[in-house]
Amino acid sequence: MEIRFPLILDGATGTELQKRGYTGESCAEQWVLEHPETIREVQRGYLDAGSRVVYAQTFGANRQKLEERGIMNRTAEYNRRLAALSQEAAAGRAWVAGDIAPTGLFLAPLGEASFEELVDIYTEQAAGLEEAGVDLYAIETMMTLSDARAAVLAVRSVSDKPIFVSFTCDPTGRTLTGTDVAAALTVLQGMGVSAFGLNCSAGPAQMLPLLQRLREYARVPLLAKPNAGMPEIVDGRAVYDCPPEEFTACVPAMLEAGVAIFGGCCGTDRTHIAALRAALEGK
Fold first, then answer.
1. Are 79 and 119 in contact (CB under 8 A)?
2. Between β-strands 195-200 and 7-8, what pairing exists: parallel, antiparallel or unpaired?
3. Model pTM score
4. CA-CA 20 to 30 A from 209: which of 125, 224, 256, 281?
């Protein structure tokens, strides 16, 4: 496949798995391996809608997160098997991204982890994904610069494939630990990442001003993977109320801000991806 911009990623995985029976009581990665057709169905739907990159269901498949669920010494195996499911779904129609997410550990003074420990955890996961033959890496929903830097170093120790990095932040552009996403962009593009952006956080309208501010500092393509609006809790579950036409209303302004990679996070489905494809047609 030839890379073409704008590039369309996939939509949400977690909320789509919930529609198909996942309750959150067990490890999502383990549940997917026990119900493999669910992820193949979700991702084939995204491919039919227009996605050209799907994220392997490896969001929580780092050693720290797996061990918190009682899954010991199976990091490489889980990443290989989960990536293989997405490769089966893609069937050569799209790239498969190895999905890498936060460890949940913090450096001092907020926590007790060392930076070397973070790199080691991510290297184990990246090695499994590289062995599986993923096409690129998506380091997403980052909340600390230390996690993002460690993940990039880990991937680069096993692969020279493209790396997309996306952060989640508050409306002012600050991460959980207070880092400005513009500073994170500057650091990470200096480390050689292929794209930088935002995911989760909020809906497209709330994300747009942050992307416009990032444009001033960006020397790589920007990435936008917003939620389907801000969730409301109804009967104990998060409900997202941003329909596809509202979800894509900011696409022209995002293009103007330098966004070249589009997708959807929590609450989005194949209809949002189809609307993205229509909005980006000929752009």
1. no
2. unpaired
3. 0.96
4. 281
Strand partners, 261: 7, 223
- Using CA atoms, how far residue 160 sits from 69, 71, 131, 213, in Å, is 31, 29, 13, 29
Sign of CA dihedral 223, 193, 95, 73: negative
Helix (H, G, I), strand (E, B) or coil at 116: helix
**What tokens does 146 get?**
């230390």
Question: Which position has the token pair 């990246």?
Answer: 126
What does the DSSP 8-state code read for residue 113? B
Closest by Cα among 164, 253, 158, 268 to 215: 253
Q: What is the pLDDT of residues 130-178, one digit of tens each?
A: 999 999 999 999 999 999 999 999 999 999 999 999 999 999 999 999 9
Contact, 143 vs 168, CB < 8 A? yes
Tens-place pLDDT, residues 140-152: 999 999 999 999 9
DSSP 193: -
Task: Locate 273 and state its tokens.
Answer: 């991806």
Tokens, residue 76: 């490489």
pLDDT averaged over every residue in the chain: 96
